[in-house]
Amino acid sequence: MDRQKMIEKSGKERALILVKALPHVGKTTGETVCCAGVTLDRQWRRQYPIHFRRLQDQKFGRWQWIEYDWVKPSDDRRKESRRVQEHTIKTLHDIPVKDRAGFLGPLVLQSTDQAKQRGDTLALIRPVESKFYSKVKTADQLSAERAAYKAAASQQSFFDKELAALEPCPYQFHFDYKTADGKPHKATCDDWETSAMFYNLEKKYGTSHALDRMSTVFNEEYPKNGMVFAMGTHSQRPDQWLMVGVIRLDESKQEALL
């Protein structure tokens, strides 16, 4: 029995990364990123906290398989949560585009209510209708975020490579959407890749074009070709669902069976 308990509290596993949420600054953990993905047998896993910018050759992206050792966190009761031993992370291959819908299709649910009924705290939801838009952050919001990132950068270990403090994105990105049950929802997008898209486009084309291009992507191209939202519950408020990823994903035959 003791051996079984030990197995449940630690282990090694492989997961396909789907989510990298915006960096978060904690009082004791510094700048960390909450990641999430699914195992080979399609079980959700939440990898946290990851000091992502301090990783060296272990940095990974969406659609990439990784392996790592983990222990069950003592401060997070969500069944999918794993405290990753960062030094054990091993990056592997990407999943081919042609295999993504078939592999993830069985995980796409009708709503977060359905996920809650299953006892899940992570889910993929395909919106029936969605509207993407942006809002400029206030000066106070940006000031507070800059101060937090600066403090986090100063917390680094003597052995860590020096990191510049992150510059917060000047915009918040939002989605209004409905789910298959007809319920309307509003969500702030906490997907790091969405903010990265803005920065990449702004660098090439300027702010106005960047926002216009993002509107085209998320209001036209993704919905037309297939889009899902990765949703996860708040660690302290289990009934609150956060949008932690916006993912291009074709519909699959498995979804039609739901």
Secondary-structure element order, N to C: HEEEEEEEHEHEEHEEHHEEH
Strand content: 25-35%
The total number of structural domains is: 2
Q: How widely separated are the two ends?
A: 38 Å
Task: Kindly report the spatial arrangement of strands forming the biggest sheet.
Answer: 1-3-4-6-5
User: Largest sheet at a glance?
Assistant: 5 strands, mixed, barrel
Unreliable stretches: 1-7
Q: What structural class is derived from the secondary structure elements? A: alpha+beta
Q: What's the total helix number? A: 7
Question: Could you please describe the fold and organization of this structure?
Answer:
- With 258 residues, the chain is α+β, with helices and mostly antiparallel strands.
- The chain folds into two domains: 94 residues, Nucleic acid-binding proteins (OB fold (Dihydrolipoamide Acetyltransferase, E2P)), CATH 2.40.50.140; 134 residues, no CATH class.
- Helices cover 29% and strands 35% of the residues.
- The chain has seven helices and 14 strands.
- The strands form three sheets. It has a five-stranded mixed β-barrel with strand order 1-3-4-6-5. A four-stranded mixed sheet has the order 8-9-13-14.
- Strand 2 and strand 3 form a beta hairpin.
